[in-house]
Structure formats: structure tokens, C-alpha cells
Amino acid sequence: MPDGWEWDSTLFQGCASYYERGRLPYAPGLAETLAAALGLDGRGRLLDVGCGPGTVILALARFFAEVIGVDPDEDMLAEAARQAGRRGVTNARWVAARAEDLPAGLGTFRVVVFAQSFHWTDRDRVAATVRDMLEPGGAFVHISDFKNAPADPAPVPLPAPPYAEIGELVRRYLGPVRRAGQGTLVNGTPDREDLVLARAGFEGFERHVVPAGAVADRTADDVVAWVFSQSGSAPHLFGDRLTDFERDLRAVLRRTSPDGHFAERLPATEIMIWHKPHGVR
């Protein structure tokens, strides 16, 4: 869990409806890469902790007999259920809970996934609990954008979203320290998942990078949705200045692209896998 920060239920309040439009997708081939790495065959159960609106769990559902998404935000779960219905996914169910509430009577799993959510948790406690919830040989999977990829030298055909200017505008409205729910992230979010998982007794580390590289066309509305899908700029944080902030945000976007069209290259996806030792119950 981030230093000096305590979770509260407003962390992603109001963000769920902006996710599908605002967030860039994971790299194509994520689900197939993970299925090949773990030998997934339609059996067993998957738990997605901090599942949000179902982005990862719905892509993986066809490789399991049952999938369960856990998230403390009811709006996120409602959006996940809506997306499941739209995609015809019938083997998913949704549980309102925090990672710290596990095992929550959910049983045993072949795979437990954290997609850009593990850093919000009490990581040592949650890792130990997840280890107990996994079958012998089961997998703890951490999924994130690959942040250290070399830049692609090929230019994109349209202006890129002005993320630096957007960040400056958010800080002008919300202060210099990143907001997160009712608190702030003075030191950012933690990393070094490898050390946490080693302390919990996991082994057999694997790392896979799924390439992307395609160029995504983005509109001003897409970029606004991206901003409001972030915990650090969730709509509720702006209070009665939300309308003013969105007006100024759109002005920033117009200065970069008067016709409101942008392009950016999709990031690669990093999959990190650790295993519960065989013979350990």
C-alpha cells in the first residue's frame, strides 16, 4: 500500500463510466499469451482482484470454467456486468469486496490476476492470502503497461494528447501532490512486486512482454474520458469546480489539436507470473 495513504471508497468514485472510452486497451494477444504461458484449457477458476469494469477478466473468461471479479466499487462491478452481458460472457460473477477482505469464502483458484491494482493493497497481507487461495502450482499474475519500452521512432500521423499540460492543469486545480480518494500519494505507488511475492513464498518467476505498437486515433472526448478515468483526477475530486476544469481541459486540447483529433501508439503489456509451489496446500 502506498506510504502514508489509507484506502477509502472514493478512490475511483465516478470513474467507471469513463473507462471503456478513456483507457487505452492492453496489447492484442494478452489473453492468448497468458493462456499459452499457463497452459489454460477451459478448466479451473480465475479470480481478478480489483477487476474494475472487467477489462481483463472478460478477455480471459473463455479459458476458465468460472471467473470471479472482485472490486470494492459498485459502479465498476455494474459496468463489468453490463460488459459481460454485451459480450455474451456467462461464466462470470461479481463480488463487492476489497483485496483485504479475501478469502471472503470464494474458494480455490487456478489463477489470481491483479491488473494494475496490486499497488493499492496491503501487499504483503494480500499476497499471503492469495497464496493460500491458489491450487498447488497455481499462478499469481501481475499485468501492467510496459513502461520501459524504447520509443518507436516512427511519428504518429496526428498530434499526441498533451499529457504534460493536462498534468499541469490537474495540479493547478487539485494541488501539487497526486490525489487518491480522500488522501494523497506523497511518494507515489509502490513497485518491486518481486520482493513482496518472494516474501510470500512464491517461486518460478516468468515475465512476458506482449507487443502492441499500433496507432490509436483519439478524439478530444476520448482524452477527457481518460482524465476522468484516473484516480488522481476522478470527477468528484473537483467538487463544484468540475465544469470549470472540463472547460479548461478542452481548451488545452484545442490548443494542441484545433479539430479535436489525436493519435498515440498503444503500449506493450507486461505480464509477470509467480507460482505457488507444488505440494503446498
TrEMBL record:
Keywords: Methyltransferase, Transferase. GO terms for molecular function: methyltransferase activity. Residues 47-138 form the Methyltransferase domain. InterPro entries: Diverse_substrate_MTase, Methyltransf_25, SAM-dependent_MTases_sf. GO terms for biological process: methylation. Pfam families: Methyltransf_25 (PF13649). It comes from the Bacteria. PANTHER family: METHYLTRANSF_11 DOMAIN-CONTAINING PROTEIN (PTHR44942), METHYLTRANSFERASE TYPE 11 DOMAIN-CONTAINING PROTEIN (PTHR44942:SF4). This is Class I SAM-dependent methyltransferase. The lineage of its organism: Bacteria, Bacillati, Actinomycetota, Actinomycetes, Streptosporangiales.
